[in-house]
């Protein structure tokens, strides 16, 4: 399996050919109606909206709704996506810089008084603070290394040329804080409408030497084409649908939020840094992109890179990992399942503590043997039901660092739970799974084919 070309429209064509892209031609209200449709289609298909009320461009959402699609985007099977991302982190690939004339994203300049109101921004949830841009990759050059950092931040529109950005702890906030302390505005390019590999790369570890664009390039089938933004100091994907150029204004804060977040509860509002937009560019026949907060696309965007980081950490701890998943039930952030091959005594506890330290958002870890498929919730539940005794196999870590967006946490402090659902090494026969093993599997396959099974 090979990854496709690294732009959004090629990806949408692929989904369309697989019957996984729906198209709504009737006008739709961006105030929660778009989100309602995406929520209903979540896990099933992407949706393109041809006529969003008040906007000049069509809109697409739910561009990745399954682990099978993640594998398709990365050129691997669904069980191999974390390994594929980890390999890109270990070996980023240089990009190709092209001239402006060869960059489709700079083909058209958005002129006139309208800018943000011309775009199909949406209000997704009933208590959100306004119309939000949820899919933009904020491309910022890190002065510490000269490399490009990508991130996705919730962005509240305020007028035609102002965005208010929530900056959670991470690389972008450090870069902005340093610029602000020096009294400097910070250049930023907002990239909208990209291949899933770029969305994933935007969630790479906060390593100031890492170039997130080179991670995306390593994930793609070919080196990623970049172009210098015309006004601000940033490199952007030449095949993106839109680029908005702007600057974070040092010392300025405005009200932002609340907003529905990945735990499917609201993140609080507060004073937020401000981006003033300077210019905007787009491809011919451009399609804007949204990410449904609390949907699978949102889960996978942040979850898969965390899986890769966890996988690397577990292997550095000397564990033989057969599989790892941050399940959708925990928003691909709050829980983890890891399968180990022939775990020695203490291996399950080592895995739990390693994951708690590697990803602070993880508050529950279940460890299973490699006879359990980590992508199958029923198998995981079976392992817990048949291999766990509560007085023997649970680990509780109180008062640990967690996620500030977890509504059950106190601030960012949470209790963490480890569940050892592995088989005791000295009693494996007692726990052996029963199997059906026909003498002639081919004959059985023929029977099933005749039955349409």
UniProtKB/TrEMBL annotation:
Ranges where the 3-octaprenyl-4-hydroxybenzoate carboxy-lyase-like N-terminal domain occurs: 12-88
UniProt superkingdom: Bacteria
Pfam families: UbiD, UbiD_C, UbiD_N
Molecular-function GO terms, alphabetical: carboxy-lyase activity
Domain 3-octaprenyl-4-hydroxybenzoate carboxy-lyase-like Rift-related span(s) in chain numbering: 97-294
Gene Ontology annotations for the cellular component aspect, listed alphabetically: cytoplasm
3-octaprenyl-4-hydroxybenzoate carboxy-lyase-like C-terminal domain sequence ranges: 300-421
Family according to the record: Belongs to the UbiD family.
Protein name: UbiD family decarboxylase
């Amino acid at each position: 399996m090979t990854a496709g070309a690294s732009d959004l429209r090629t990806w949408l064509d692929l989904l369309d050919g697989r019957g996984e892209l729906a198209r709504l031609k009737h006008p739709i209200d961006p105030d929660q109606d778009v989100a309602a449709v995406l929520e209903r289609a979540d896990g099933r298909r992407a949706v393109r909206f041809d006529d969003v009320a008040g906007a000049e461009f069509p809109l697409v959402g739910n561009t990745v709704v399954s682990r099978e699609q993640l594998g398709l985007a990365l050129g691997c099977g669904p069980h191999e996506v974390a390994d594929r991302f980890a390999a890109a982190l270990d070996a980023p690939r240089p990009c190709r810089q092209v001239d402006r004339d060869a960059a489709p994203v700079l083909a058209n300049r958005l002129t006139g008084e309208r800018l943000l109101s011309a775009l199909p921004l949406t209000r997704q949830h009933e208590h959100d603070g306004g119309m939000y841009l949820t899919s933009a990759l904020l491309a910022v050059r890190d002065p510490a290394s000269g490399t490009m950092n990508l991130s996705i931040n919730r962005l509240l529109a305020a007028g035609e040329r102002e965005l208010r950005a929530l900056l959670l702890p991470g690389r972008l906030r450090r870069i902005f804080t340093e610029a602000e302390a020096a009294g400097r505005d910070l250049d930023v390019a907002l990239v909208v409408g990209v291949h899933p590999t770029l969305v994933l790369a935007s969630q790479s570890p906060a390593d100031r030497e890492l170039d997130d664009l080179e991670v995306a390039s390593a994930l793609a089938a070919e080196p990623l084409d970049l172009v210098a933004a015309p006004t601000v100091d940033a490199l952007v994907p030449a095949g993106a649908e839109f680029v908005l150029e702007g600057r974070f204004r040092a010392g300025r804060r405005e009200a932002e939020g609340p907003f529905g977040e990945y735990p499917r509860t609201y993140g609080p509002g507060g004073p937020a840094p401000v981006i003033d937009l300077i210019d905007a560019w787009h491809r011919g026949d451009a399609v804007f992109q949204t990410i449904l907060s609390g949907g699978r696309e949102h889960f996978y965007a942040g979850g898969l890179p965390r899986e890769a980081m966890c996988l690397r950490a577990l292997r550095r701890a000397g564990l033989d990992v057969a599989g790892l998943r941050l399940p959708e039930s925990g928003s691909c952030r709050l829980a983890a399942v890891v399968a180990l091959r022939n775990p020695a005594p203490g291996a399950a506890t080592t895995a739990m503590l390693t994951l708690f330290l590697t990803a602070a958002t993880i508050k529950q870890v279940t460890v299973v043997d490699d006879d359990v498929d980590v992508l199958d919730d029923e198998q995981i539940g079976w392992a817990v039901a048949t291999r766990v005794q509560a007085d023997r196999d649970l680990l509780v870590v109180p008062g640990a660092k967690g996620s500030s967006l977890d509504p059950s946490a106190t601030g960012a402090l949470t209790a963490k739970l480890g569940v050892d659902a592995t088989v005791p090494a000295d009693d494996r026969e007692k726990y052996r799974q029963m199997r059906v093993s026909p003498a002639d599997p081919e004959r059985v396959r023929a029977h099933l084919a005749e039955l349409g099974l």
